[in-house]
Amino acid sequence: MSTPLFVTPLWLDLTAVGIGAIQGAMFAGRMKDRRIDLLGVALIGIVVGLGGGLLRDLLINQLPAAMASNWYLPVATGAALLGMALQRLFSRLNPLIIGLDAVTIGLFGAIGVTKALAYGVPEVPAAFVGIISAVGGSILRDMMLNLPIALMHVGSLYAVAAGVGSALLVILATLRVPITIAGISCVILTAVIRLLSVRFGWSLPEQRAIGSWPRWRRG
Amino acid sequence: MSTPLFVTPLWLDLTAVGIGAIQGAMFAGRMKDRRIDLLGVALIGIVVGLGGGLLRDLLINQLPAAMASNWYLPVATGAALLGMALQRLFSRLNPLIIGLDAVTIGLFGAIGVTKALAYGVPEVPAAFVGIISAVGGSILRDMMLNLPIALMHVGSLYAVAAGVGSALLVILATLRVPITIAGISCVILTAVIRLLSVRFGWSLPEQRAIGSWPRWRRG
Amino acid sequence: MSTPLFVTPLWLDLTAVGIGAIQGAMFAGRMKDRRIDLLGVALIGIVVGLGGGLLRDLLINQLPAAMASNWYLPVATGAALLGMALQRLFSRLNPLIIGLDAVTIGLFGAIGVTKALAYGVPEVPAAFVGIISAVGGSILRDMMLNLPIALMHVGSLYAVAAGVGSALLVILATLRVPITIAGISCVILTAVIRLLSVRFGWSLPEQRAIGSWPRWRRG
């Protein structure tokens, strides 16, 4: 399948990276008990902002985008240090950041899916690449900070939003819907699910073996 | 060296992936103190079932097998959710699963070694690729669950079994033994060592500096 | 940019790998409370000695150097087991090892930068590849041992030394300074910064939001 790439302008891609890096720095800033230094903050920013795209390109065996341009690393580093310095300001803007982040997840997912399709990856793994593009930064962040990986635990639907959006994009691409429409649909659906799940506290059920399901229990 | 690939039929490869994913889910199921949700279980299943093959293909710089087919990801996810739901059943089948797992390690090792040799990797790193193919899933599982990596600690011979089997395969391939015979020998040797080590509690000695060896101590 | 590779003779590269592996084994040896076995020590040695080069080649999407030669893995494994056995001897040689390590960081950085430039990676990500080549082994070590990543926390300037050296090399290469001179300058500058920071206890400041900077505080 020779799906055309859902091309995003560089400034949009870099904005998404910057938003990720700011969030990474704010996350690191909440860990007062660890003595994280300036380099640690920059590293977390780079990991959160660029990690998803890096895992995406490792999975499809291509040169990582951040290695092909001079822009990505300075933007991620700068945004992380800004996020650290202006932590109070950004904390007050939290609702705005959650909104921007929801769009960012969708954007990373859409770029991931179409890049995978464009390089000949079949539909199912292409959707998987979309999910990893969207959530990979937060997985790497938790692994580097030596924390349990947030998205494996009961919480609001981060990866699910990315997964539903990515699946929609794969289906639309298979139906030969123009890639720009398909990509924008993916971004909107992902962002809406994410925001609704934050608003209404939706979550996936905790793991459960059949024998322990309440309806199977006998008095 | 143009070693032919030890070709395994897709159903066998997928069975091995499924057994790995079921074990991953059962492992996650024992962690009652963490609130792992359905997605977390699916993720652990994907990591344990597909992680070894993923690391193998990253090491030899090829497109991961799971990214080249629609089958791997649904099988790993489905097996993980099945393993979660039928945990009690599978726990009772534990001896069977340990047996299947021993064969699975051997199979992953054999596929890893021959794939590396086929892509021109020299003998020593090819055997290393076999070991990582066999144990990579469990390494990634422990890193994602934020646990000490099981195989670095004193315990039954998991990686050693894979290492001996992989070394045998490399030697046989160098001696131009037909690849099917070499591959099956690797699987059998790996599985036998693994099962004997479980049965008799074999383990590697703990790390020790020479100065602290008992025979060097003076009254 | 077709920068020529800063070619290091194989024996020098392997010496650097061996020094890394010995340090990894000594690090593992200090963790008496965990029951790390011989395989665990070998694995840590491989990770510390070869991890930087592995991450470097993953980032620039090339076959890892350790996968293209029979020498790297045995040297790393042998050095790690030697480091474990002769722990007392090496502990007494600690100043020598810190000195050799400082040169090793510089060497890994110089190889990383020039390899990235030679494969067409632009200047900024090329310097980043140099830093990761130098410090990647210690990052992977901490992730595998389930420890907080040392270089993210306040401490002596490990990554900064690699970063300054890598930046110098990128600048010299852009100015068309012969690559051998540029590479040796990078190694010397990195080693000197690292050693001075150990000697004088230099460190980066801890992360700090602007609102909490002392000069901004009011009575």
From TrEMBL, chains A, B, C:
The chain crosses the membrane at residues 6-26, 38-59, 71-90, 97-118, 124-140, 147-173, 179-198. InterPro entries: Gly_transporter. Keywords: Cell membrane, Membrane, Transmembrane, Transmembrane helix. Pfam families: Gly_transporter. It is found in: Cell membrane. Signal peptide: none annotated. It is a multi-pass membrane protein. Residues 10-87, 100-173 form the Glycine transporter domain. Belongs to the UPF0126 family. This is Trimeric intracellular cation channel family protein. It comes from Luethyella okanaganae. The lineage of its organism: Bacteria, Bacillati, Actinomycetota, Actinomycetes, Micrococcales.
